[in-house]
């Protein structure tokens, strides 16, 4: 099974603290890396996590609050100083398009690679990126400004070859891809060996959902049905429920309720308010609703199964 990993670069909220960096994550699937959000200091976190800048080709910005995007321009500039030549694709709310172009012209006019801007509509759910391995779709959220999450869906892979059967029938290596694609093998004596006998079932496709800043939104559960791992903001504890509603954020127990209703495999919570000295109160409240909850922490890695 190819690696499907999440690297947490930052899991704090808007006000800086000495314990957490602003929001940013790396999603790695089948050798490719994608960034979600790019708060201030993200490029330093890439260094600390030993993630190579050259492997990153796509950045997805959930919304235009500074703790989710202030690190983008600095990172683009650093890529230029490091001699990057491959294009960088930036997916962000359409309102950013004109300002982003001016920022690039002013601060990054000497970079020698293309930065391709892809405007996204945060109000609808649709596929915004697709390649042979995966799709990325938007998840409309309920925040003060246009905001969306992102759903990473792995595409089905081909069945696994049974090496013992291949050796027994003396099947040439050149025919393996055909067999994986369901083509039967005919022996020199004319016997037809079904492809199903020569393979085992493919690995089940995996999925990861990132729900950025949002008020509690029960209808999210339907969009997240069966997701392997869900990251959901959990800025506040239950005692600050009114504050969560006022500032369009969620409590830890609300994030856990979404996870439970959606039947996800694992919940990761983050985007912690600076008002808490530690996040154990958030973890405790979430676990009461959804036991398989873990805390996001800087430089943590999570495998998607």
What would you say about this model in short?
This protein has helices at residues 42-48, 66-69, 72-81, 97-107, 163-169, 176-180, 220-223, 241-246, 252-262, 280-289, and strands spanning 4-10, 24-29, 32-36, 56-60, 88-93, 115-120, 127-130, 134-140, 148-154, 160-161, 185-186, 192-193, 199-200, 207-211, 229-233, 266-270, 293-295, 301-303. It has 305 residues and is an alpha/beta fold. The longest helix is centred in the middle third of the chain and has 11 residues, at 97-107.
Structure description:
There is one protein chain. With 305 residues, this protein is α/β, with parallel strands linked by helices. It contains ten helices and 18 strands. The strands form four sheets. A seven-stranded mixed β-sheet has the order 6-5-4-3-2-1-18. Helix 9 runs parallel beside helix 10. The termini are close together.
What are its keywords?
305 residues, 7-stranded mixed beta sheet, 10 helices, 27% strand
- Decide which structural class fits the backbone: alpha/beta
The helix-strand sequence is EEEHEHHEHEEEEEHHEEEEHEHHEHEE
Relative strand content? 25-35%
Largest sheet: 7 strands, mixed
The total of helices stands at 10
Oligomerization state of this entry?
single chain
């Amino acid at each position: 099974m190819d690696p499907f990993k999440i690297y947490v670069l930052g899991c704090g909220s808007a006000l800086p603290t000495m314990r957490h960096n602003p929001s940013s994550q790396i999603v790695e699937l089948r050798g490719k890396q994608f960034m979600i959000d790019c708060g201030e200091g993200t490029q330093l976190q890439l260094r600390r996590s030993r993630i190579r800048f050259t492997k990153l080709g796509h950045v997805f910005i959930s919304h235009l609050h500074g703790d989710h995007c202030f690190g983008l321009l600095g990172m683009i500039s650093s890529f230029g100083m490091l001699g990057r030549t491959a294009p960088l694709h930036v997916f962000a709310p359409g309102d950013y398009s004109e300002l982003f172009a001016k920022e690039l012209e002013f601060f990054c006019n000497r970079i020698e690679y293309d930065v391709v801007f892809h405007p996204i509509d945060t109000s609808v759910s649709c596929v915004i990126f697709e390649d042979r391995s995966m799709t990325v779709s938007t998840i409309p959220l309920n925040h003060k400004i246009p905001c969306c999450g992102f759903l990473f869906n792995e595409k089905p892979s081909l069945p696994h070859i049974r090496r013992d059967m291949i050796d027994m029938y003396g099947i040439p290596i050149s025919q393996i891809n055909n067999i994986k694609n369901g083509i039967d093998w005919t022996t020199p004596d004319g016997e037809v060996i079904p492809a199903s006998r020569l393979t085992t079932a493919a690995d089940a496709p995996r999925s990861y959902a990132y729900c950025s800043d949002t008020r509690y939104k029960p209808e999210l559960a339907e969009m997240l049905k069966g997701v392997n791992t869900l990251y959901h903001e959990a800025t506040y504890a239950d005692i600050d429920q009114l504050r969560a509603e006022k500032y369009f954020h969620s409590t830890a127990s609300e994030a856990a309720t979404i996870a439970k209703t959606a039947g996800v495999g694992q919940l990761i919570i983050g985007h912690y308010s600076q008002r808490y000295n530690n996040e154990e109160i958030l973890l405790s409240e979430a676990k009461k609703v959804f036991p398989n909850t873990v805390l996001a922490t800087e430089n943590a890695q999570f495998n998607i199964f």
